[in-house]
């Protein structure tokens, strides 16, 4: 009787052992989704904000809308504009100190970019403000994507100055058609949230994947609406074309958007929508790689190979809207 009872117990123990080994194998390939502490979550969000802000500041600093800053005197910095709407002349301003025996004077020189034109000179008007002079002159408005290069020669505090200082260096300004605020503001806002959630998704994949899936899908949604829908609308209003990246052109802003979008589409297609109690290592890897692709794209200077008016075609009588090219360096 004892032997008959013992045999089934041994068989039962043997049958349980493979199940335990199988459970260990699953645990090795997946991560149990447990909500981390408030401190850890706060730290990850802080780091995500820091990374996103750094990327956005770099994009703005390397983009065509960021003015050229040049020191004029102690406590006075000139901000020479690099973008303007095509509906009006672009006012170039050069601040100068009130001190000195003589009034400051300056001349603005400009010409169309990538042409053999001679530089045109315009005297700058000195306007006295409360704490400094302001030297002003207007660059003539250009069609959308038209570019002018300019520099300033000035006499400030009795000294001859050039802005920018290097003789072979000029400031480049590009004109664009107005973009409605109802299109521009949502586009910018959604792109800001996309980079923020993208960085947070990558950090979640590394350290706390409990909400990685939701963050990744939020990133993709933001990029779809802000980048792939509103982005082309901004491009259309500003330069007359919805899409100037691959395969239609060489605009790296559009190409970067396409690369990032496809990276997050791939990541979200792998992780899926269905919530899971455990997160597979493959899901974490693809989300982290999508965040890396996004980071690399944001390290590429803004508007490389962007829309540019070909003045040689305009001089041949071609309509400016038909003479815009991309991919030029």
- How large is the count of helical segments? 8
What is the CA-atom radius of gyration, in angstroms?
29 Å
The biggest sheet amounts to: 6 strands, mixed
Mean pLDDT: 88
Give the overall shape.
elongated
Binned strand content:
15-25%
| Portion of residues within helices | 40-55%
Indicate the low-confidence ranges by residue numbers: 1-28
> Termini distance?
92 Å
- Helix vs. strand class: alpha+beta
Overview of the molecule:
With about 325 residues, this protein is of the alpha+beta class. It is about 45% helix and about 25% strand. The protein is built from eight helices and 15 strands. The strands form five sheets. Strands 4, 6, 7, 10, 11 and 12 form a six-stranded mixed sheet that branches. Strand 2 and strand 3 form a beta hairpin. The longest helix has 28 residues. The protein is elongated and about 75 Å long. The N terminus is likely disordered.
Short description:
The protein is elongated and about 75 Å long. Helix 2 packs across helix 3, helix 3 crosses helix 7 and helix 4 runs antiparallel to helix 6.
Can you tag this structure with a few keywords?
six-stranded mixed sheet, 329 residues, alpha+beta, 8 helices, three-stranded antiparallel sheet, 15 strands
Summarize the SSE layout with pairings.
Layout: H1 2-29, E1 30-32, H2 38-62, E2 68-73, E3 76-80, E4 83-85, E5 90-97, E6 105-112, E7 120-123, E8 125-128, E9 132-139, E10 147-156, E11 159-163, E12 171-176, H3 181-207, H4 212-227, H5 230-239, H6 252-271, E13 278-280, H7 281-299, E14 308-309, H8 311-315, E15 324-325
Parallel strand pairs: 4-12
Antiparallel strand pairs: 1-13, 2-3, 5-9, 6-7, 6-10, 8-9, 10-11, 10-12, 14-15
Helix pairs in contact: 2-3, 3-4, 3-5, 3-7, 4-6, 6-7
